[in-house]
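Help!! Second protein's tokens look totally different from the first
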Amino acid sequence: MVLFAISIFGDSSRLSTIASAIVPVMACVYILLALAVTVLNLGLLPAVFGVIFANAFDFQSIFGGFAGSCVMLGIKRGLFSNEAGMGSAPNAAAAASVSHPVKQGLIQSLSVYIDTLLLCTCSAMLVMVFYVQDPAAATALNGIPLVQMAVNSCFGEMGIGFVTFAIWCFAFSSIIGNYFYAESNFRFITQSKTALFVFRVACLAIVFFGACNSFDLAWNLADIFMGFMAIINLVVIVILGKWAFKLLDDYSAQRKAGKDPVFVAESIPGLPPTECWHVAADELEPSTQGPISEFTDDVVEAVTTPVD
């Protein structure tokens, strides 16, 4: 709470810098930790995959899938994993400096696979190895304690300490990141300092409320509000989807022509007004400074080349 308050009311640059440096390291170490546990228990892998397939295709799972309960739970937890379709990650992606928006869009698509297929698989392997080793203990635990005990089975108390610190880093950086998403959008709506102060106090109160209440309440509230975000975002995707495909066509055409794609809004006829990407071809002056000249030439060619 104190660190979050300092971040939103005070000089947050130092905390943000520390978090941005620690979190990637924690993620890499966490992956290595999961790989180490897997390698140390290679003999248990057949039993692990046996449990996975046995539970995936039993009658309870099949009928649960037909009823939609398993699918619904997977969708809700998938949103927490990678935020795909929720509309929050574009707030960070939009801050990237790229020559064409499709470049960053492709990177964001890749991040979904990294989150879900890599990091979540690491957690799954930790838990499943522990389950095969001690089914009774694993069944009695849930959430973070389950992951902690899974690491403890191989690395002892040091493993529990690392998982605790890593999860704290992930949680704190997530709170800070999502807050700045929210503040960026709030500042777009109003520049009132009083309103911004009230907004910050409200965010602080919500974090305090969540920290003092049960996990079930926090999960349920998060599910509800993330559902609202997904609904709004899906409507926007339907409205703007055709323009995304036009940008993808523009990107593909430039790539096929052997160019480094450069986007100019005026090159897409009928594109709704935007606040960026406005560099008209006739405004670019030729330069003899090597890379700068090549860049301007590429932009001019990108604008003047017709796109199917």
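Here's the second one for comparison:
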Amino acid sequence: MNKIFDPLPDGNCGFCCIARALGYKVEGWFQVSGRGHREAGAYTKLQGGEEQMKTILQNLKVKSKKATCIGVDEF
């Protein structure tokens, strides 16, 4: 291991980690979020069908680049 990345616990930290691993810049988490959201439709059957997938996608959708801090108890 040659680098350690400790993202802010802002609700987008998972996207930040993936973006960093892929070599994106600081705002790359927003691209990762959008692309994941677009590609997730291919896995509808695996996730339990249309309604379940709709719920998953609604919960993953990020509307803006402004981070909203959440507490650890919400994870």
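Reply: Different proteins will give different token patterns, so don't panic. Residues 19 and 29 are 5 Å apart (CA to CA).
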